[in-house]
Design a protein that fits this description.
The chain is an alpha/beta fold. 38% of the residues lie in helices and 17% in strands.
Length: 297
């Protein structure tokens, strides 16, 4: 049975943009699309007759109905299914995400109020879902995934923008690279693989030589880890980048022209807390293109 692309809906502009991005991704992957909305009074049988639930129940139905209608206009090739889940938003999204091929959420970069994607819920969901999660901004459009046309106008028919992936050879990242290479292949887009490094303390007289040596080792390590993936995905045009500096800052800078950023999140045994790591936390705040967070052991 095919895993669906699942979208968390809360009626915000961000979740509608997430649904449109997810519909395109479902088309690219040949997967079903499933829209979910969570509210704790949702469909619990013993609460179904309470009149005070009429307003939130109607709002929940309207959120999903409006999303389906919007997708029918903008992506008629995809016919989504919908579901109301009678659980708190984080619990509902984690459960739905664990059964999905990927989970797509609207992202406000933790600014503003209202809706279940405002900061803590998105963070809690990403920290606990065992499948990839993609965060999408409200301003994301179909044209935004593509390069501008010859007259520098937005276009949905030009080639896709680059897929960018952060690589750490010191940690197992097969799931991250698999997602990044597949995403680039599906888009016929170039893949930029970025491995950042920092120069350890050395005497000033030896700094230039040490920088060249460390940079060369970083380039060699990146080439080695990518070699089997280049062979597995021979049609993907891969660019290897090994800049010096902070991974969070370098990825944020490189993502300014990208169509998708892919980063990894190590799965931790503890189920409490929101352990995403500093790089994931930074790109969730600052990167404007869709961000895929891929969990790995």
């Amino acid at each position: 049975m095919l895993r669906p692309v699942v979208v968390g809906m809360d009626g915000s502009r961000e979740s509608l943009a997430a649904a449109e991005w997810a519909a395109q991704e479902a088309l690219r992957r040949g997967l079903p699309l499933h829209l979910v909305h969570a509210w704790e009074g949702g469909v619990t049988p013993d609460l179904s007759e309470l009149p005070e639930l009429d307003a939130p129940r109607y709002r929940a139905r309207r959120i999903l109905r409006d999303a389906v209608e919007r997708l029918g206009e903008r992506c008629p090739q995809v016919v989504p299914t919908t579901e109301q889940i009678a659980r708190s938003a984080p619990d509902a999204l984690v459960a739905a995400g664990d059964e999905a091929e990927l989970l797509v959420l609207g992202s406000r970069a933790f600014s503003g109020f209202g809706g279940f994607m405002a900061g803590s819920v998105a963070l809690a969901t990403i920290a606990h879902v065992t499948r990839p999660v993609v965060l999408v901004r409200a301003e994301q459009t179909l044209e935004g995934e593509h390069l501008p046309d010859a007259e520098n106008h937005p276009s949905a028919t030009t080639p896709y923008r680059d897929v960018l992936v952060g690589v750490d050879p010191a940690n197992a990242c097969e799931e991250v690279l698999a997602f990044a290479f597949e995403s680039a292949m599906l888009r016929a887009a170039p893949l930029q693989a970025v491995y950042t490094w920092r120069l350890p303390y050395v005497e000033a007289a030896a700094e230039a030589r040490a920088r060249r040596a460390v940079g060369a080792r970083a380039a060699k390590a990146l080439t080695a880890i990518l070699r089997p993936w280049r062979e597995k995905f021979p049609t993907v045009d891969v660019h290897e980048l090994t800049p010096e500096g902070s991974a969070a800052q370098r990825l944020t800078d490189a993502a300014k022209g990208a169509g998708l950023l892919v980063v990894g999140r190590r799965i931790r045994p503890a189920r409490l807390g929101t352990h995403t790591g500093p790089v994931v936390h930074a790109v969730m705040h600052h990167v404007r293109c869709p961000v895929a967070v891929v969990p790995h052991q």
